[in-house]
Design goal:
The chain is α/β, with parallel strands linked by helices. 50% of the residues lie in helices and 8% in strands. Strand 1, helix 5 and strand 2 form a beta-alpha-beta unit.
């Protein structure tokens, strides 16, 4: 090979390695910071500029001698680091996923739909806020999922969970609705929904085993305003002896892990129909009187969402091995979970705290929600308790939630008994073990602890009613 050809070949190799190295570095940095724990917003313009500069220099003048050697050595080092990161991530993914069902939702749907053509994915009230066109021209705001449907829920490091929805789209045995009066109505979000918990294993199921006339009225993504609407629409008409409201510190009022609005503020600003439930007039939509229209609206959105999900996750067999290690989106999720505590200790936590004005506005809204709930509960002679459920981040990063005391004080001011699960989780000595390893919901141990706490409380109330 002539000297000129060798020079051109070296230049080509250098350019290729530089472009590949910078691209991989960008993907790695973006992946490590993808959940907002470490902010790397500067990475995009910086790496794009470096890439353009490298390409320009390479075409203007062949790089030879020590400069070329330095570049090649640097890229070899960078490649080794990136390889180690991906290998570590893959190994952690294999360890965490060993023995689990690691299929993505689209694969599960494709395998089950031929035999179960009506299988749905979860549709929750929050979806109707995001897609107002599904509201039948604004005449109806659904508060639950698809009625009487087999529903594919989720998987957080275990088997895929699905369930049969009841006549109103909640996750209960349908016959409970035939009871004239309830023992317990449990209001909440995904934790009450039993996300990623198998049938009969969630804390709602365990409470029902002791108090058979128990309804779980929670849906994925619910916040306090939707929960108030659910209480008035479905809970109070069944005259529950006890109403348990599960408050989740992770997003009900505000979110620490990102700068998005908390669920209450999100609902308040985008769903005016929900605010009608705040009024003392006893507003209801009476789903029991228009079940056919309600079912049509929810089914339409569910089918559309299922189709969009399948289309956005095409069946590409070559990618299947990546899904088993959580690499399908180029995110170093498993490495990130190890690095997050280190980021926090170094001051790169970027946990969000609301401004005093924003916090006060949110608390004022929560106060209105609880005041409306209090009036309804008193009218129906239902004994109320607020359960404070801590977020996994509290224990992973040792960061208390600034809304903790305010939320409990407001609940007590409006006549709720309160059960603070923070000390109960802490007393176990391993609070992280109460959550799934690959998500933020309760593990079986977490569901068992919450169930024991609630059952003990209800038994005491039954023996010594207030």
């Amino acid at each position: 090979m002539t000297s000129s050809k060798k020079t051109n070949f070296k230049r080509f190799i250098a350019l290729a390695l530089t472009a590949l190295g910078l691209a991989l570095l960008f993907l790695a940095l973006k992946a490590i910071g993808c959940n907002g724990i470490l902010s790397l917003g500067w990475a995009t313009p910086l790496l794009a500029s470096l890439l353009l500069l490298t390409l320009a220099i390479g075409f203007i003048k062949p790089l030879q001698g020590p400069l070329l050697e330095l570049r090649l050595n640097t890229l070899v080092l960078l490649g080794a680091v990136l390889f180690c990161l991906q290998a570590t991530n893959m190994g952690l993914g294999l360890i965490k996923g060993w023995g689990n069902d690691n299929r993505i939702k689209a694969d599960v749907l494709r395998q089950r739909l031929p035999q179960e053509p009506n299988l749905q994915i979860v549709v929750a009230p929050r979806n109707f806020i995001n897609e107002p066109k599904a509201l039948l021209q604004g005449a109806l705001f659904p508060l639950s999922g698809v009625p009487d449907a087999d529903t594919l829920l989720c998987n957080e490091g275990g088997p895929w969970v699905s369930y049969r929805a009841d006549r109103y789209g909640f996750r209960n045995p349908d016959e409970v609705w035939d009871k004239a009066k309830l023992d317990v109505a449990i209001i909440g979000d995904s934790f009450v929904h039993g996300v990623c918990a198998k049938d009969e294993s969630s804390f709602v199921d365990q409470v029902r085993a002791q108090f058979p006339a128990t309804l779980g009225l929670g849906m994925l993504g619910n916040g306090p305003l939707i929960e108030l609407a659910t209480l008035k629409e479905f809970g109070l008409p069944k005259q529950p002896t006890h109403t348990i409201w599960v408050f989740y510190e992770g997003n009900d009022l505000f979110r620490q892990l990102d700068d998005k609005a908390g669920d209450l503020d999100f609902e308040w600003g985008k769903a005016g129909k929900l605010q009608a439930y705040l009024q003392p007039s006893g507003y209801r939509q009476y789903f029991d009187r228009q079940r056919a229209r309600f079912k049509t609206a929810v089914e339409q959105l569910a089918v559309n969402n299922r189709t969009r999900h399948l289309n956005s996750h095409p069946n590409v067999p070559v990618l299947t091995p990546l899904w088993y290690f959580g690499l399908d989106q180029w995110q170093l999720a498993h490495v990130q979970s190890l690095l997050n505590p280190i980021y926090f200790m170094l001051g790169f936590n970027h946990l969000h705290t609301p401004s005093p004005a924003s916090a006060q506005q949110t608390l004022n809204r929560f106060d209105q929600v609880l005041a409306s709930a209090e009036a309804g509960l008193k009218q129906h002679h239902s004994h109320a308790v607020m359960v404070y459920l801590p977020e996994k981040t509290r224990f992973a990063l040792n960061t208390p939630n600034p809304m903790h005391d305010y939320a409990l004080q407001l609940a007590e001011a409006h006549g709720f008994d309160t059960i603070d699960l923070v000390p109960r989780f802490t007393e176990t000595g391993n609070p992280l073990g109460l959550y799934t390893r690959q998500g933020h919901h309760l593990s079986q141990a977490g569901n068992d602890l919450v169930a024991r706490t609630l059952i003990t409380y209800l038994q005491q109330q039954t023996a010594h009613p207030q």
